[in-house]
Amino acid sequence: MHIGVLALQGDFIEHQHILERLGVQTRQVRLPAHLEGLDGLIIPGGESTTIGKLATDFGLMEPLRAFARSHAVWGTCAGAIFLSKDARRPQPLLGLMDIEVQRNAFGRQVESFEIDLDVPALRQVEETARPFHAVFIRAPIIERVGAEVEILATLSDGRIVAARQGHWLATSFHPELTDDTRFHRFFLKMVQEVTPLHQDAAVSR
Ligand code: GLN
C-alpha cells in the first residue's frame, strides 16, 4: 500500500511518521504527477487558505478532485476544511465532502485543547472501549452534514468533529499528533475497501 500526504504546508511529516510505523509506504505530494500510483491520500492540518492557494498555484485542484473520486482521502483539521463543500467564506476548497465547516470554531480562550472522545467506528480496527485522545488546534467544527455523511464523533454538546462520506474522512482534530494509530488504521481500512471500486471504475472506463 502506498499512501500520499499532501505536503504543501502543515504537519504532513507527522502523518508520514505514523504511516511508516504502520509499515505503509508514503510519498509527499506537491505536484499532480505525485498522485500517480497512490492508493489513498491524507491532507494534513495547517492553514486551509494557504493549502488552497498553494494547491491552486501548483495546478493540483482538479487532479486532487479526480483522484478523490476513485480513492480514499482523509483531511485532518485544515485538511477537513479543504475537503468540504462550504467553509462559509471565500477560499479555494476541493468541495467534495457534503459538510459545512465553521473555521476556528472554539474562539480565543480555548484555541487549543485535548479531550477524550468516544468513536464507536474505531472498534472496527480494535476491540476496545478506550476513548480516543483528540488534539484540537484552532480547530473547525462540522456544522452541517449532508444525507450521505455518517457522523463518527461529537463533543459532549453534540458538535460534530469527525465524519465520513463513502471513501472520504474528515476529522477536526489531529490523530497524527498522538501515539494512537487507530484513526490511521481506520483510514487504511477505508483505502482497502475502495480498491475494488477503483478497479471497477478502471474497467468500465
Ligand atoms: N485554523 C486552521 C484553518 O482554519 C486549521 C488549524 C489546523 O489545521 N490545526 O485553516
Automatic annotation (TrEMBL):
InterPro entries with a match to the protein in the record: Class_I_gatase-like (IPR029062), PdxT/SNO (IPR002161), PdxT/SNO_CS (IPR021196)
Alphabetized UniProt keyword annotations: Glutamine amidotransferase, Hydrolase, Lyase, Pyridoxal phosphate, Transferase
Domain of life: Bacteria
Any GO BP annotation: pyridoxine metabolic process
GO molecular function: glutaminase activity; pyridoxal 5'-phosphate synthase (glutamine hydrolysing) activity; transferase activity
Annotated catalysed reactions: L-glutamine + H2O = L-glutamate + NH4(+); aldehydo-D-ribose 5-phosphate + D-glyceraldehyde 3-phosphate + L-glutamine = pyridoxal 5'-phosphate + L-glutamate + phosphate + 3 H2O + H(+)
Any one annotated GO CC term: glutaminase complex
Assigned EC number: 4.3.3.6, 3.5.1.2
Active site, UniProt feature: C77, H174, E176
Keyword Protein biosynthesis: no
Coiled coil: none
Binding site for L-glutamine: G46, E47, S48, R103, I137, R138
PROSITE patterns: GATASE_TYPE_1, PDXT_SNO_1, PDXT_SNO_2
Pathway linked to the protein: Cofactor biosynthesis; pyridoxal 5'-phosphate biosynthesis
Subunit annotation: In the presence of PdxS, forms a dodecamer of heterodimers. Only shows activity in the heterodimer.
Entry function: Catalyzes the hydrolysis of glutamine to glutamate and ammonia as part of the biosynthesis of pyridoxal 5'-phosphate. The resulting ammonia molecule is channeled to the active site of PdxS.
Similarity-based family: Belongs to the glutaminase PdxT/SNO family.
PANTHER family: PYRIDOXAL 5'-PHOSPHATE SYNTHASE SUBUNIT SNO (PTHR31559), PYRIDOXAL 5'-PHOSPHATE SYNTHASE SUBUNIT SNO1-RELATED (PTHR31559:SF0)
The protein, known as: Pyridoxal 5'-phosphate synthase subunit PdxT
Biological source species: Thermanaerothrix daxensis
Lineage of the species this protein comes from: Bacteria, Bacillati, Chloroflexota, Anaerolineae, Anaerolineales
